[in-house]
Write a structure and sequence with these properties.
Blueprint lengths: L1 E2 L4 H12 L4 E5 L18 E5 L14 E4 L6 H6 L1 H8 L1 H13 L2 E7 L26 H21 L2 E7 L2 E2 L10 H11 L3 E4 L5 E3 L1 E2 H12 L7 E3 L4 E3 H12 L5 E4 L14 H7 L7 H16 L23 E5 L3 H12 L3 E5 L3 H8 L10 H10 L3 E4 L2 H5 L4 E4 L14 H10 L7 E5 L7 H13 L7 E5 L9 H6 L3 E5 L2 H10 L1 H4 L13 E5 L1 H32 L3 H9 L20 H14 L5 H25 L6 E5 L14 H11 L3 E5 L14 E2 L3 H4 L5 E4 L4 H4 L3 H7 L4 E4 L15 E3 L4
Helix pairs in contact: 1-7, 3-4, 3-5, 4-5, 6-8, 8-10, 11-13, 15-16, 20-22, 20-23, 23-24
């Protein structure tokens, strides 16, 4: 398995592994890698490309002989734009891939970096040098992530006996480099070919040692096939100044571009040269490609991209994406809850003038100060950035938000009523409040999840509210949201599809708002991504939202049904579900057995579909079964505890995780809270830890909230993992055993590694095995 396999280095490494007759499962989330880099490998026997993020749990069915962890943003521009993703790739990604290597008994190769040496005081740099790194500087997200990765790799080798190796990669270049990644060689080459000045930082005296990608890959292969643990420097000891490199590229391209000097970035290393004695003596490896030859090949590749001569495995486009000018509009967003706050912030980020409206003045004040009212990764940073442009504001005064708005987004809650039908009172109030302030021709865009047919209902409510002003024209469009808590910004900016329902002219007008998303022309857009624009009538757009969530909920319930059967039949659902998910017609997403789904969407939307269907005399039995299976999963946790502990009265039980999913502070319909209620009703004493939740509703005041997982487990008879927060996957079983009175751990998300618990003195049970 190769992570980052669609990246610059990873794609070349995938080729080399296949040439050695090694099957390659290539994982990449395509943040900096591109499917085009390995397009020429698609369809070859032994190669498989999977879109996956190593920050998430990794499960690969069947045997794995080698695990190569090359996933990480790796350029200065990436550090600036993706610091958290960079840290996650080096920390969580390393832990997840090490866990897989441990589980499979595989040889593990970590791609580390010469950046671990920082701005070195020792020259050249041997592997024994500890480095000079600024832990809080602009490069720290990459430097420290890789230093952590090396420490984790070493720990897994010494504690768990994983067969690991660490390679420290020095500056590498060659075909398939991203032309806009901010590194010196692609920047100089692009500038020389375009005839614009070559930009050299400082006086150009800082040095680098550049290694052609074929040489680097050969070093990686030799280290992988050796029994060396490392770290091992893999790089070219031939040292060049930046000025010499710029002049050499100018000479090879035949360019007459001048050289201009700019201030050096903070923490830019003054010198970089590997001591490759270890690689020479132990691996019989040293670079073979002369820098002039390597640069000639690289420049030829870049030149081909400029002239449209796209070769196999090359990116589909060469030049930095031109910023396309799109119309800017004035937008009002009614409701600043989860959907409204994200929608307001993202539309302002795309260049529109946005005013968020909410009757809660405390919330609008909080948002105006750049404070997100809920946990959502990345939102506080984008919120502050959008506010600083002056394009975003929040208010509790309708006239300020609505009087000059071209578009009005409805983002208010539609909670379920007693019988499951959505309560539309908030939405009705919001629509009625619009009437005195609307401008002619305004487009009302409904993002609230509403029953099918609500578009016509919206029009009727607004017409009645207009009263004597019946001549005012307006348009209604349905634009259902598909935002997942914990990754809402990505879902808004990099969606699979955008759904718009309504009259063709109205839909096209709303599509203008999303033009930067549809063509990915905004800063940080992904050129390889082209979201689908799906246009429908009003009713179909409203149905799409319900149908999508109903299907996902059903898929999870199906996984839980299979888990129940596997327990009865003696099969292992952890082997069954990945195997059926490998079928492209099925897919592995949402085939996750455990305590079941929760949150504000699945239960509400399925209940609304059932309720609306019954109004029309139809009973959707499959959806009713979906809900029933989900409820039974929560009860099954208690049954497992009763089976193992017998009487629960007076037993101490710890719950790890309270939110319905990781990455959010949302407790709505959280399985953990339902399980807690059942345990309290059975007389158990319940403690809990969640990384973001620090207090609970009064009805659950009997639960003892703790500062960490080990405090929650103190003197308990059993621990139940109810939310798959990443930190729980790396919990120390021995440390857990020391504080527990009992020895039972119930994995309610099948997220723990069974191998980690071997010899710990703890009994680990899950769902479906």
């Amino acid at each position: 398995m190769l992570t980052g396999g669609a990246g610059f280095v990873g794609s070349h490494l995938a080729e080399a592994l296949l040439a050695h007759e090694i099957d390659v499962i290539c994982l990449d989330n395509f943040v900096t890698g591109k499917p085009e880099n390995v397009a020429h490998l698609q369809g070859r026997d032994g190669f498989r490309l999977i879109k996956a993020d190593v920050s998430d749990f990794i499960s690969i069915p069947g045997p794995v002989d080698y695990v190569l962890h090359f996933a990480s943003p790796a350029s200065p521009i990436d550090y600036a734009q993706l610091p958290i993703q960079t840290l996650k790739a080096g920390s969580l990604g390393t832990l997840h891939t090490l866990g897989l290597a441990k589980e499979k008994g595989a040889r593990y190769l970590l791609a580390s970096t010469s950046e671990t040496y920082g701005d070195p005081h020792v020259h050249p740099q041997p592997e024994s040098y500890w480095g000079n790194v600024n832990p809080v500087g602009p490069r720290s997200c990459y430097d420290e992530a890789k230093r952590f990765a090396e420490a984790a790799t070493t720990a897994y080798r010494t504690k768990h006996g994983v067969n690991t190796a660490i390679m420290r990669i020095f500056n590498t270049y060659g075909p398939r480099m991203r032309p806009d990644d901010g590194r010196a060689i692609p920047a100089f080459v692009n500038q020389a070919l375009a005839g614009v000045p070559l930009t050299v930082h400082g006086d150009g005296s800082q040095t680098r040692s550049v290694c052609y990608v074929d040489d680097l890959v050969e070093g990686a292969i030799r280290l992988l096939f050796s029994d060396l643990a490392g770290p091992v420097n893999i790089g070219n000891p031939h040292e060049l100044t930046m000025l010499e490199l710029a002049e050499l590229i100018r000479e090879i391209t035949g360019s007459d571009s001048p050289i201009e000097f700019y201030d050096r970035p903070r923490d830019d290393p003054s010198q970089r040269q590997p001591d490759i004695t270890l690689a020479r003596t132990e691996l019989n490896w040293e670079p073979q490609v002369d820098v002039t030859d390597g640069l000639t090949k690289t420049i030829s590749w870049f030149r081909d991209q400029m002239h449209g001569d796209f070769t196999a495995g090359a990116p589909a486009s060469y030049s930095v994406r031109e910023t396309q000018e799109h119309p800017r509009h004035k937008v009002a967003v009614i409701g600043t809850g989860y959907v409204g706050a994200v929608t307001s912030t993202c539309l302002a980020f795309l260049g529109h003038s946005v005013c968020g409206l909410d009757s809660d003045s405390l919330r609008t004040s909080q948002l105006n100060q750049g404070q997100a009212p809920f946990v959502e990764p990345g939102l506080p940073e984008m919120l502050k950035a959008a506010l600083s442009t002056g394009r975003l504001q929040f208010t509790d005064r309708p006239a300020d938000a609505l009087s000059d708005a071209d578009f009005v987004f409805l983002c208010v809650g539609t909670p379920p009523g007693p019988e499951g039908a959505p309560d539309l009172s908030q939405l009705e109030g919001a629509i009625q409040s619009l009437a005195p302030y609307l401008r002619p021709g305004v487009v009302i865009v409904n993002k609230s999840t509403v029953p099918v047919g609500s578009g016509n209902w919206t029009r009727t409510i607004l017409e009645d509210a207009l009263g004597d002003d019946r001549e005012l024209s307006f348009h209604v469009v349905s634009n259902p949201e598909f935002l997942r808590e914990g990754c809402a910004l990505d879902d808004f900016l990099y969606p699979d599809r955008i759904v718009l329902g309504g009259a063709a002219a109205d839909v096209n007008h709303v599509a203008e708002l999303y033009a930067p998303v549809l063509d990915q022309s905004f800063e940080g857009g992904r050129r390889t991504l082209r979201p689908a624009l799906i246009t429908t009538d009003l009713a179909s757009a409203e149905m799409i939202k319900y149908a999508a969530n109903a299907f996902l909920a059903t898929k999870i319930s199906f996984a839980n049904e299979m888990a129940q059967m596997c327990e009865l039949f003696g099969a292992d659902v952890r082997q069954v579900l990945p195997a059926i998910g490998a079928d492209h017609r099925i897919g592995s997403a949402f085939l996750n057995p455990g305590v079941g789904w929760g949150g504000s969407c699945f239960g509400k939307d399925v209940a609304a579909l059932i309720s609306t269907s019954q109004e029309y005399g139809y009973t959707p039995s499959m959806l009713q079964a979906t809900v029933g299976i989900n409820k039974s999963q929560r009860a099954s946790v208690v049954r497992k505890l009763q089976r193992e502990l017998h009487v629960l009265k007076g037993r101490r039980i710890a719950l790890l995780g309270l939110t319905f999913k990781p990455g959010t502070d949302d407790l709505r319909d959280a399985p953990a809270l339902d399980i807690a209620r059942r345990l309290l009703a059975a007389g158990a004493v319940v403690s809990a830890f969640d990384p973001v939740v620090k207090s609970l509703p009064d009805e659950l005041s009997a639960i003892r909230m703790t500062r960490d997982a080990y405090e929650a487990a103190d003197r308990v008879d059993a621990v139940v993992v109810t939310t798959e927060w990443p930190e729980f996957r790396s919990i120390d079983p021995a440390g857990l055993r020391r504080v527990m009175r009992g020895d039972l751990v119930v994995d309610g998300r099948n997220c723990l590694s069974e191998a980690d618990f071997v010899g710990s003195g703890l009994r680990l049970i899950g769902f479906g095995w």
